Amino acid sequence: MTNPFDLTGRVAVVTGANTGIGQGIALALAAAGADVAAVGRTPAQETVEKVRALGRRAEIISADLSTIEPVGRVVDEAVDKLGGLNILVNNAGIIRRNDSLDFTEEDWDAVVDTNLKSVFFLCQAAGKHMVANGGGKIINIASMLTFQGGIRVPSYTASKSGIGGLTKLLANEWAAKGINVNAIAPGYIATNNTAALQADETRNRQIMERIPAGRWGSPEDMGGAAVFLASSAADYVQGHILAVDGGWLAR
Ligand code: NAP
User: Which Gene3D superfamilies does the record associate with it (predicted)?
Assistant: First the structure.
């Protein structure tokens, strides 16, 4: 029997792959056999070196995803440099914190443009390639705030709630075209994105007390879910938002 989680010969585009969850996912996909196009505004040199050390091909694609300007080029470069595009992981994202009464238009637009608008248009660009080439897998990175309200992060909550809806909509439209669109909703993961929360003694304690697993997650904790959703093991999984949260939502 062949291994349904084997990604040998597949090309994965991972955005925001230089650090954090994106790096963890890129390395897990490579360990399962995929070649990786590491997309982002900061060159993902370390990630590329680690993927190559695993015996897989890896290329850096420079792109600032705060606008949709680079999305077509990202797909073209991945295809040119690695010969295809079978897996897209929309991981790049930002967060801005402020009371909703004081929240600025700039903080709204920056987060929604990066976390939601660019994700849709990169899905569209990759989707066109996948439809023309026999299908593919798209994995969006959602959040606990796809399900919950959060506090002092209105544009982030709006963007990640939007990711949940977008994931289901694209699954509805593209399932019959051979594309699986799903999402991973990480719990509280120790990365740059959560540095402020980790450093806040009170919030850190409150968060830890609520996580049944009793610890923050790591970028590596996201790897297995990504490999699953990127693989043929998930061929009949569509529009699902897979929480990888140490039990946070179960509490
Ligand atoms: P991170 O360490 O801050 O990584 C964010 C990544 O996104 C970085 O590679 C960053 O690149 C990239 N990025 C941001 N803006 C970009 C832009 N305009 N163009 C291209 N790349 C851009 O945070 P993380 O925790 O790994 O976050 C990854 C994803 O997981 C995000 O979508 C985040 O919302 C989501 N998430 C995180 C958690 C958590 O607890 N950490 C929980 C739920 C969801 P630079 O290094 O150049 O800034």
Answer: NAD(P)-binding Rossmann-like Domain
